[in-house]
Amino acid sequence: MKHVFVYITTADKKEASSISETIIQERLVACTNIIEGMSALFRWENAVQSESEVILVAKTTAKAFPVLEERVKELHSYECPCIIALPIAMGNADYLAWIDEEVSN
């Protein structure tokens, strides 16, 4: 697995945009997508919670993921943010090469 698709949930579009801008500028990811309008239900502190969230999807390399994960934790407002990497099994070779060119780690 050389490339990963990173799923991150954020409190709102402003936070997703701020995190995106930083991780792109720092060359931890090649690009991001911000998806608004998600409803999240989850158990937190022994109670079921319901919140609106924004999805941030980032494309990067598996090698860069550990640094990306730590940086997102530093930038994120949540105590325990969702940061999950999923392997990219196949894809447009030109696009995957572009990810390699853009990510410096």
Query: Helix count?
Result: 3
What is the CATH topology descriptor? Alpha-Beta Plaits
Helix fraction? 25-40%
Q: Give the helices and strands as they follow along the chain.
A: EHEEHEH
Cα gyration radius (Å): 14 Å
Structural class: alpha+beta
Quick one: overall form?
A: elongated
Strand content range: 35-45%
Cα distance spanning the termini: 15 Å
In the CATH hierarchy, what is the architecture at level 2?
2-Layer Sandwich
Low-pLDDT segments: none
Overall tally of structural domains: 1
Q: Write down the overall mean pLDDT.
A: 96
What about the largest sheet?
Answer: 4 strands, antiparallel
Number of strands: 4
| Sequence of strands across the biggest β-sheet | 2-3-1-4
Q: For the record, what CATH class applies?
A: Alpha Beta
What oligomeric state do the depicted chains represent?
Answer: single chain
What can you see in these coordinates?
With 105 residues, the chain is of the alpha+beta class. The chain has one domain (3-102): 2-Layer Sandwich (Alpha-Beta Plaits), CATH 3.30.70.120. It has helices at residues 13-25, 65-75, 93-102; strands spanning 3-10, 31-44, 47-61, 83-87. The protein has a four-stranded antiparallel sheet. The model has no long low-confidence stretch (mean pLDDT 96).
